[in-house]
Amino acid sequence: MTTSGGEGTSAAGGRRRRGPGMTEVARAAGVSQKTVSRVVNGEPHVSPEVRDRVLRAIRELDYRPNTAARALLLGRYRRIGVVSLGSTLYGPSTLLIALERAMRRAGYSVALATTLEGQRISAAVDALLEQGVDGIVLSEPIDDGTPLRLSADVPVVSLGEGVELTPGTSAVVGADGVAAARIATEHLLSLGHRTVWHLPGPQDWWAARDRLRGWREALAAAGAPEPPLPSPGDWSPASGYAAGRQLAGLSDVTAVFAANDDMAIGALRAFADAGRAVPGDVSVVGYDDIPAAAYLSPPLTTVRQNFAAVADRAVDVLIALIEGRPAPAGPADRAVELTVRASTGPVREPGPAPHPAPAP
């Protein structure tokens, strides 16, 4: 580990040549160390000619002040903050990896603040601002459902609709969970199902609320009745199984849209245990297209999210805002698409009523 202007230890344990310090910069620029410090820290009372001389010496010597001083010197931290859940679930973790890759390609490092342990979004934003960031991405946070009005002195990009942002320095981008849920629900309705039941995710998640809203919008647009909701799940197969057990006993349930693939997997097991065939008796659609979705029995119809496209667009928009340029127009290309597999099919025409079982 090295510090600016000091000696370090090499991987082999030997001493290595220290980088140039403030003394060398002062000597090269023909000024005092105090003047170099003033320039590095952005202080006034330095003439433009002297400031230019010091900056030229810094560049020529490749002097590396600490992060805070370098931010004052260059006007940027080259770091972007991300408010995320810190979750290992497929969607949030895959999106976070995609964001980090996009930021590093653009020459920015990443600072992370999570909300999974109950920290409010505003507190997470404050923590990032204290670290020093040039902009912030709000990615898959959770909240208490009340409107959040967020004001920050850096640009902010949100990947959800659950926050009111400062106009002009902020934007909402990302995969449209509402539209994706509509696509999933419309697919089932197009197969002749009278209505579609929904297995909702936890309602303190923006993503779960978007998918619930899209399901409702699709039913309303089609004039289909809205069935009652089972208790919200927690994204796990176990919660999908519990909800699926409730629905398996209802003969009018022929189509189900689950808020994620793991809950859909639980529902598939519940229907199988109840003797209801998929898709013969019940069609099931998930959300996320996890790697296992194509290898289930039957393979799962699901909404695929293009996490790389979402991340690239979010970073492009945020950097444009940081640099004071107009944000690039247009949604992420193919951010969501329906992947149709064998878990969905046409509604089965009702057959003759079964004969009652003989009395024992």
UniProtKB/TrEMBL annotation:
It comes from the Bacteria. InterPro entries: HTH_LacI, LacI/GalR-like_sensor, Lambda_DNA-bd_dom_sf, Peripla_BP_I. SUPFAM superfamilies: lambda repressor-like DNA-binding domains, Periplasmic binding protein-like I. Gene3D superfamilies: 3.40.50.2300, lambda repressor-like DNA-binding domains. Residues 1-29, 341-360 are annotated as: Disordered. Keywords: DNA-binding, Transcription, Transcription regulation. The keyword Acetylation does not apply. Residues 20-74 form the HTH lacI-type domain. This is LacI family transcriptional regulator.
